[in-house]
Specification:
By secondary structure, this protein is an alpha+beta fold. It is built from 3 helices and 5 strands. A 3-stranded antiparallel beta sheet has the order 2-3-4. Strand 3 (44-48) and strand 4 (55-56) form a beta hairpin. It is globular.
Length: 123
């Protein structure tokens, strides 16, 4: 049976994968030295956030294959470049939505959600 354009799913839990330079390039200048930053290490890529343990990148993107199989064996050791472009690029996101038959979605920040745990609310 052919699916009509009007049919499809609504996703209520999509996430953006913020670009590595988002915080360092757009945060107020007074906070720039404390801005969350991206760091590539031999064992994987991480977002470094003041007062928090390093956060492995790829949890919303490059882990997708592991999520589909239903078995996530590790959270670390992934590279930001393994993330699907639909995580941050709007045109690629629309193509991914078509692949998944998504006609609408609510999109939340990825690492941006963690900022609510910062001990300094002004920051």
């Amino acid at each position: 049976m052919e699916q009509s354009i009007a049919s499809g799913y609504i996703s209520a839990d999509g996430h953006v994968v913020e670009p590595p330079e988002l915080w360092t390039s757009r945060i107020e200048k007074r906070f720039r030295d404390r801005a969350p930053r991206f760091e590539s290490r031999p064992e994987g890529d991480y977002f470094i956030i003041e007062g928090m343990p390093p956060f492995p990148t790829g949890l919303e993107g490059s882990m997708m294959k592991a999520k589909i199989t239903g078995e996530i064996k590790q959270f670390e050791g992934r590279r930001y470049t393994d993330t699907r472009p639909g995580g941050w690029d709007p045109q690629a996101r629309l193509a991914d939505q078509d692949l998944d038959h998504i006609r609408a979605e609510i999109i939340y920040p990825g690492i941006g959600l963690i900022r609510f745990g910062f001990p300094d609310p002004e920051f």
